[in-house]
Amino acid sequence: MDSISSSVSSALSSHRGQLVLTAVASGFAVGSTVIALQKARQLSRVRSIKDSIPPSAEATEVNAQLTEYGAPATFSKLQNEPDRENVMAARARRGDYDEDLILEQLARNRVFLGDEGLSKVRNAFVIVVGCGGVGSWAATMLVRSGVGRIRLIDFDQVTLSSLNRHAVANLADVGTPKVMALRKHLEQVAPWVKIEARNELWNMEKGEALLSGEPTYVVDCIDNMDTKVDLLHLCHSRGIRVISSMGAGCKSDPTRVMIGDISESSEDPLSRQTRRRLRMKGVATGIPVVYSTEKPGPGKASLMPLSDEEFQKGSVKELGVLPDFRVRILPVLGTMPGFFGLCLANHVLVALAGYPTEYSQGKNRTKLYQEMQARLVGSESRLRGNVIGLKLPLTETDIGYLTEEVFKGKSVISGISTRLELIRWNPLPHREEGYWAEEEHRVSLDDLVVMTKDEAKKHEKEVLAGSKTPEEFWGSEVVERVNQRRKEEAHYAKYRDT
Length: 498
What we know:
Elements: H1 2-13, H2 15-51, H3 76-79, H4 84-93, H5 99-105, H6 107-122, E1 125-129, H7 133-144, E2 149-153, H8 178-186, E3 194-198, H9 204-210, E4 217-220, H10 225-238, E5 242-245, E6 257-261, H11 269-280, E7 288-292, H12 308-312, H13 335-353, H14 366-383, H15 396-406, E8 420-424, E9 448-452, H16 453-464, H17 470-474, H18 476-493
Parallel strand pairs: 1-2, 1-4, 2-3, 4-5, 5-7
Antiparallel strand pairs: 6-7, 8-9
Helix pairs in contact: 1-2, 6-13, 7-13, 10-11, 11-15, 14-15
């Protein structure tokens, strides 16, 4: 220890050692000063931006005139008052905002996605349709993550019941349009993002205009089936990338929230009906969705029925805010819409940036549909006396729709989901001469049922080529099951060409 002390003392006592130590100390002091100056300059820029914004004025009374959706027609605080947040947002949109500060705010995304990936995100234009519990979370994270331009579309207003699941709305926002409340809050987070708030109902009449501007991605957070199907079909037909949220209502298990193709979604009425209606329009795959595989069960929440008092008020359809929109209360655990919205935003961000994803894939049943189609042709040919070259006007899409949506991917006889086959349910009309006209080769979806191969073989022998009726051979319970499936299909068939 003494030798070390003596060495230090010797170094300090020498002129050269003193110079070295002085240089080291000076370098440290200069470095610290530079860092301090850079930090001070950064803080000064932030302070300058904030100090240049005039103070908020007192909120004025909201105009009492209402829109067709029941929301106030004008909002003086949001539109006319030069408050601090609006001024900052306006300046940022004009480009008067420090790029270094933007990059610092996006630093974590930048190192994750890389400069090129972040640049793609910042240059993107995303449209969010539906800004309630799911859409507000999706929009919030897209803005926080640096999406350069976003359009918010929703006709509805914030209510007290919205506050259990909305990403940003508070008591002061109740009674204001959801898009206005969302924009107001998000402009305080990222004022350089261009945020358009469209307080309108998306429908086919306005659809093209509301999707104008060549969006990079569309996020569907609509909870009305008709509108949802129209939006998804329009985006799919126009080649616009879109992702859709299925139902978050009545769900409570976040570990069951999945991202996958529309053909894979399950265990949700909204998902099932949306998928079924899209298949009718010829869209079976190609649309990513966020859905939950959580199954309903005893003790779990379910759609609440309307009370007798509500029915006594008149036509149930007249109780909705808008025609064809739900009038029943949907049980929603406040956390679940957030999970759905975050999954939507996550998918859009990685897709925009080109970041690799490895979602688990559902089973591809295209080969099964092809085999079922071939075996159906064989069966129909035998019933007609071995017609050569028989062609049936049914596509793989038709086969898939009938198998998955009408018969739930199971045999109508036994409920078995393997070795499936499509076969005619009732015998062909009898022809003494054995001749079949071309138009009599037609087969409609309503003629067919799904069975296992063994069941179909028995059905062809005993019912189609034999003398027994379906009820005599299979029993009344099976016949009722088939009739129920046909009844459901008749209900959905009216949407096939809409």
